[in-house]
Amino acid sequence: MYFTRETDYAVRIVRHLAAVDCRTEAKKISEATGVTLRFALKILSKLVSGGVVRSYKGTQGGYELQKPASQITLREIVEIIEGPVYLSKCLHEEGECSCGDKQGCKVRGVFSEIADTVNQKMESYTVDQFL
Questions:
Q1: pTM attached to this predicted model
Q2: What is the spatial distance between Cα 101 and Cα 96, in angstroms, rounded to a whole number?
Q3: 21 pLDDT exceeds 70?
Q4: What is the per-residue DSSP string for 56-108?
Q5: How deeply is 64 buried, as exposed, middle or buried, from its count of CB atoms within 10 A (0-12, 13-18, 19+)?
Q6: 53: number of CA atoms within 13 Å, CB side?
Q7: d(CA 33, CA 13)
Q8: Exposed, middle or buried by CB within 10 Å (0-12, 13-18, 19+), for 127?
Q9: Whole-number mean pLDDT of the chain?
């Protein structure tokens, strides 16, 4: 299991915005993070939709964090880009447990416990801790 490059870049972009703590143009974000402008714009769009970043149009336009870095968790960024983190399809509400017994499945129980631990750990890290 690994997060995509898009998630890695999203974390870097949010970290950069927290570090500069001011409205920044997409081109400058791209240059500072090493993410191509096109990909940075795609990621920024998702972060805006997810409520982490605010965008401004026009000559004074750019991007900035919508809330303090101390209130943005790693889990929030990951879920904006990847969606909820599941270790197995059977953990997804609409997924099916291959054994056919969601309630009594021991494997599902173990996977669920591990997923909960991973999600709690990601929730414990905020962007300000990456500065």
A1: 0.89
A2: 9
A3: yes
A4: E-STT-EEEESS-GGG-BHHHHHHHHH-S--SSGGGSTT---TTS-TTT-HHH
A5: middle
A6: 35
A7: 6
A8: buried
A9: 91
Decide if 112 contacts 91 (C-beta within 8 A). yes
Intra-chain end-to-end CA distance of the chain, in Å: 26
Q: Quick one: angle between helices 5-20 and 26-33, nearest 10?
A: 110
What is the rounded CA–CA span in Å between residue 50 and residue 100?
34
The answer to whether the CB of 77 falls within 8 A of the CB of 10 is yes
Tens digit of pLDDT for each residue in 42-76? 999 999 999 999 999 999 999 999 999 999 999 99
Question: How many residues are recorded in the chain?
Answer: 131
Tokens 């950069």 — which residue?
16
